[in-house]
Amino acid sequence: MKARLLALCIALAPPGAAHAEDQAERLGDAARGAEIFGLCKGCHQIGPGARNRIGPHLNEIFGRRAGAIEDFSYSKAMDRAFSDGLVWDYDRLDAYLENPRALVSGTRMSFRGLANPQDRHDVLAYLRDFTASPQDIPESAPTALPREVALPPEVLAIVGDADYGAYLASECLTCHQQDGSDAGIPSITRWPVEDFVVAMHAYKRKLRPHPVMQMMAGRLSDEEIAALAAYFRNLE
Amino acid sequence: MRWNRRVFMGTGAAAAAALSAPMLGAQGRPRVVVVGGGAGGATAARYLAKDSQGGIEVMLVEPTRSYYTCFFSNLYLGGFRTLDSLAHGYGTLAAGYGVNVVHDWVIGVDRDARTVHLAGGASLPYDKLVLSPGIDFVEGAVPGWDLSAQDVMPHAYKAGTQTALLKAQIEAMPQGGTYVMVAPPNPYRCPPGPYERISMVAHHFKTHNPTAKILIADPKPGFSKQALFEEGWERHYQGMVERLGPDFGGGNVRVDPAGMEVDIDGELVKADVVNVIPAQKAGHICAAAGLTEGNWAPVDGHSMVSRMDPDIHILGDASAQGDMPKSGFSANSQAKVAAMAIRGALTGSRVFPAKYSNTCWSLIAPEDGVKVGAAYEPTEEKIASVSSFVSQTGEDTALRKATYEESLGWYDGITADMFG
Question: CATH 1.10.760.10: does it fit domain A2-136?
Answer without folding.
Answer: yes
